[in-house]
Sequence to fold (293 residues):
Amino acid sequence: MARHIAPLETVAVTVPEDAVEAFEAALLAVCDTVGFFLDEETGLWRLEGVKPVGARQAELDAALALANAAAGLDAALTHTPTEADGWLARTYDSFPEHRIGRRFAVRGTHLAEAPRMPGRLTLTLNAGVAFGSGEHGSTSGCLLAFEAVAKRRPRRILDLGTGSGILAMAAAALLHRPVMATDIEPWSVRVTRENAAANGVGRLVRPKLANGWRDPAVRGPFDLVFANILARPLCRMAKDLAANLAPGGTAILAGLLTTQVRWVLAAHRRQGLVLERLVPQGAWTTIVLRKRR
Fold:
């Protein structure tokens, strides 16, 4: 089991649902992963991230100030010491081998025994890097949506904001097609490359450091685009997505709360894309769009 050299802390903030996106982005500025916990009685969400004690505190304070300003709140951040080994143990316990839809199984590298789910494509990920593990509603929603889309055998595929690379790996493994996997974060590009190699699709998954559609190398037409990011960036990129999607092509959009579906959908309908399907997963919903031929 890998060990953290630096002591860790859990940073957390509690906010109403309509502020979740802004504060998630703030915590992701310094934490590799963010957890979401809904208080059913109050309707408030607790967001938690884990980072080395004191690391990048000024950057986190600035990001939280912006989130508070955008949401019109004065939400305070809490810091709790977190034992590294205990945190890893809890992470491992919360990441068992599990099934998604009819085709996929996701398991952590901490599971030493052989995969127990024959007939499925098993994707193996480091449980210590929890983003994109498949357990989050947005990731599982994308994989469920992809099962149906895969029947069309899309050829040109893009995973925009790839995170751990799980969606790119799923597409490469199921379709045996090359997949461009882009992200704005260098660590994501590195992790995706490592995960793809470990899952036997290193020759098909092509990680690239890129800022969305701004990179000249990220140009369509694509037959399938995954974009599991955040609601506001999805809305801002609607025009670029429509322009780079092939006629008849499909976009699978996620990373948005169910309450955000209406305005994300409206932004893409204005660009001529049509709704094919919604895939709800708890508080999260995945949108499947098509471009008319």
